[in-house]
Amino acid sequence: MSNLNRTELAQTILDTMSNVAVIADCTLIDTITDETVLLQSGLDSLGFAMLVAQLEEDLGIDPFSEMQLAVYPRTFGEFTALYASALKG
Q1: Which of 1, 17, 43, 68 is most enclosed, with most CB atoms within 10 A?
Q2: What is the pTM of this model?
Q3: Per-residue model confidence as pLDDT tens digits over 18-42
Q4: C-alpha angle with apex 38: 35 to 44, nearest 5 degrees?
């Protein structure tokens, strides 16, 4: 899946967020954009942990485990950029 462009990657993450929200019994906000603050997206901390685990399974990467300094993205755009950068290797 590393050949995804930015739009496809963002859609993959959104689809995964939707699936995780159902499992985690969370309700996502109606519209998530690059400017959406992750903490206001509707997923709770368990939901985000599940999201990262599912994305690692689907994409084969966990950018958080590869970080020198643990910096969590604040917005959906930053989150997607982090995955895009990790996919490039």
Answers
A1: 17
A2: 0.91
A3: 999 999 999 999 999 999 999 999 9
A4: 160
